[in-house]
């Protein structure tokens, strides 16, 4: 959502709307803890964690943040996601609610395990 081109995750968070920044910082901290060796980069104008495949991404919108582990992980954790808005690819967290840290960590760990178990070379 930042209007200016950004080149790092830190720049992305700093350029995001003020209401989004605490949520983005909290999410970023969790993801760094789960995947400390992952490359952090900006792809398609949003933060990505890559190891060397897509692990997860996140983005700020006007009213909520989107966290994207993978459609498969979201589908596998449907019961844990009850009460949270989701799409096929995103967990959405409105800025009026706290980041569900345990849930995000659970999803991120599941995605990390899923990616590390793969034997193909595909990015997604």
Automatic annotation (TrEMBL):
Pfam families named in the record: DUF1801 (PF08818)
Limits of the YdhG-like domain: 21-108
InterPro entries, per the entry: YdhG-like
Gene3D superfamilies given in the database record: 3.90.1150.200
Organism (species): Ottowia flava
Highest taxon of source: Bacteria
Listed name of the protein: Iron chaperone
